[in-house]
Amino acid sequence: MDYIDLYESPLGPITLASDGESLVGLWFEQQKYDKATLGACEARPDLPVLLEARRWLDAYFGGKDPGPIPPVNPRGTEFRQRVWGQLAEIPYGRLTTYGEIAQRIAEETGARASARAVGGGVGHNPISIILPCHRVVGANGSLTGFGGGLPRKIALLELEGVDLSKLTVPTKGTAL
């Protein structure tokens, strides 16, 4: 059984999901790949981990570094678990690239990892914002896709004080 709650963010409604102990999902409404890993659900806004996630999000959307993330347990393959673990290590207000994540995974495992494979893992991140996939950009500074939509990615980076002046939007190829 999974447990859910709704959170009203400044960027639209967010669904929070838990297995009872950890977060297993956090999605904007109509986000790509939303709720794909959930089983049967019951609303439980009083669940401690969901309350902790709400406090974390309140601080985050309040423009503050919310500190350590709530307990997470994203569901996915071993490789995706590694990618998501790398996402958790990206500091607030900082960016990294798919290639840099691939390099760190290769160093950890001794096995080659491609930026493209990392992109697939990042794209299927089931715990948006808290596992900050919005902080990953292309090697050339391209603001690649975000399951919650590119405008939300830009808004999240702006909220964190990221300098967007050297980043580009892939479809237009122009600086922001």
From TrEMBL:
E.C. number: 2.1.1.63
Limits of the Methylguanine DNA methyltransferase ribonuclease-like domain: 4-65
Domain Methylated-DNA-[protein]-cysteine S-methyltransferase DNA binding, residue spans: 78-162
Keyword Cytoplasm: yes
Enzyme class label: transferase
Coiled-coil ranges (or none): none
Active-site residue numbers: C133 (nucleophile)
SUPFAM superfamilies: Methylated DNA-protein cysteine methyltransferase domain, Methylated DNA-protein cysteine methyltransferase, C-terminal domain
Keyword list, A-Z: Cytoplasm, DNA damage, DNA repair, Methyltransferase, Transferase
NCBIfam families (alphabetical): ogt
Family: Belongs to the MGMT family.
Note: This enzyme catalyzes only one turnover and therefore is not strictly catalytic. According to one definition, an enzyme is a biocatalyst that acts repeatedly and over many reaction cycles.
Name under which the protein is recorded: Methylated-DNA--protein-cysteine methyltransferase
UniProt source species: Raoultibacter timonensis
